[in-house]
Amino acid sequence: MGPSSFVFHGISLGLVAVCNGYVETVIGVAGERVTLPCGYSVKTYGVTDTCWGRGEVPYSKCSKMVVSTEGDKVTYRQSDRYKLLGRVRKGNVSLTIINATEADTGIYGCRVEVPGLFNDLKYNVLLLVGREKTLNHGKC
Length: 140
Hints:
The protein is mainly beta. It has one helix and eleven strands; from the N terminus they run ββββαβββββββ. Mean pLDDT is 85; it is low at 1-20.
């Protein structure tokens, strides 16, 4: 495998291509909480609507939505496992998944709605969840 690939639970993972924005990788341990980062400047954009979904951020809204907000109020939550524990009013809309499982592995997308055409902020995060024994914590 090349320098851009690695093996996770016996699955070879190469470069992850996304169409919008960039992708950040977060590694979590099954049974623990894991936080996927997302935030914006309230000073620049004001308190605005946001959403998190499974899969890359599409052209509008979020695909397979797990959490959404209107301003600083959470208006939709697919499960009590999905929480926004940061200071939403201050622009911290990082998604925390309680009691993460290996089934949570995948790409998540965060959209921050900004007025105007094609102005939304989009963040894609690759979450890898494994059992502690199987994670090498950066060791080869």
